[in-house]
Amino acid sequence: MINLTDSDIKKSTKILETLLANTYLLALKTQNYHWNIVSPNFTMLHELFGNQYEALSDAIDEIAERIRMLGERTPATFYKFLKLTTLTENDDIKIAEAMITTLLNDHEQLILELRTTLKALDDSDDEGTIDFLIGRLREHEKTAWMLRSHLSL
Ligand SMILES: [Fe+2]
Fold first, then answer.
1. 57 CA from centroid of ligand 1 (Å)
2. Are the C-beta atoms of 129 and 70 separated by less than 8 Å?
3. What's the 50 CA to ligand 1 centre distance in angstroms?
């Protein structure tokens, strides 16, 4: 296998499972807003959310496959994702600015959770997962900046 202790594998898997569920929820929420947005800036925001949905979708596959690389089985049902996620669904939002703020808050929450998570992996030898999580952190920081830049001051 990949020469990690059971304890390191379990620790990484638990973190990746939560991240997978959160990324799945955030992808669906972003896709929801891509479909349902009504705004004078429809084309721009429809495309912005569409691109962000696609990026999250790619990340979902990478997170799930990282769990498989550790030799564990990946969760892959809505039931499990809803149990694992730390985000909440927001299906009742109709105003474009509130959609942007909601997505921004979720990305910022994931940034904070990823930073806490990385500290918890300080003594782990699973550098592959640590590096992967740092990459996800950077992606959420970039998306948060883009969303934030669409909000008026
Ligand atoms: Fe679309």
1. 13
2. yes
3. 6
